[in-house]
Amino acid sequence: MNQTVLANNLQRVSDQVSKYSGHLLAVTKFVDKDVTRALFELGVREMAENRPEPFLKKLEELSDIKDQITWHFIGHLQTRQVKKVIHNIDYLHSLDRVSLAKEIQKRAICPLKCFLQVNVSGEASKGGFQPDQVLDVINNLANYDKIIIVGLMTMAPIDATDYELHDYFKELRLLQEKIESLELKQAPCHELSMGMSRDYLIALEEGASYVRIGTALYQD
């Protein structure tokens, strides 16, 4: 990929994100090790992957810099893949079911920072908990000392209008604020992971602290 294009795209998106004091999470799942390294050389230190095997391979290829990167896993994580992944990531954005929480509790050595995935749109094709389940789920995780719920995550429908996007993201923010106000030890819940290349500006307007950006960084 053209380095100048990458640098310009990164600067443009970074400038927009910084206006809202958000975190730019560079999604590197579809780019090779060279582009990932180029992002690192441009100053990016927070990166996201969504498939275990390609992620672990990339860690081997970037062995000289991997420990200087904060790694986020944003994809669906099967329980059988937990032991391979959790020791190599700093954040999990896709805690979407209780069975996954149980496996993390079983396999983790240190507490893992997790975002509870919430299906605010109610789409059958998307995983995650329904908004009215979230408080009960968090209470049920109270004794899971290897899991810290640092925030909530959602993915908006690809065909949502701007008006609908504002509604979805606002709903998640209000839920996050409600949980944060409870001051739960296992769920400080001060972060919001929402917004991707097509809708991150609206997500930032609605309070996103992490936006997951891929396409906007790599398009010509």
TrEMBL record:
One of its GO terms (molecular function) is pyridoxal phosphate binding. Its cofactor is pyridoxal 5'-phosphate. It comes from the Bacteria. The modification N6-(pyridoxal phosphate)lysine is found at residue 29. Coiled coil: none annotated. SUPFAM superfamilies: PLP-binding barrel (SSF51419). InterPro entries: Ala_racemase_N, PLP-binding_barrel, PyrdxlP_homeostasis. Residues 6-218 form the Alanine racemase N-terminal domain. Keywords: Pyridoxal phosphate. Belongs to the pyridoxal phosphate-binding protein YggS/PROSC family. PANTHER family: PROLINE SYNTHETASE CO-TRANSCRIBED BACTERIAL HOMOLOG PROTEIN, PYRIDOXAL PHOSPHATE HOMEOSTASIS PROTEIN. Pyridoxal 5'-phosphate (PLP)-binding protein, which is involved in PLP homeostasis. This is Pyridoxal phosphate homeostasis protein. The lineage of its organism: Bacteria, Bacillati, Bacillota, Bacilli, Lactobacillales.
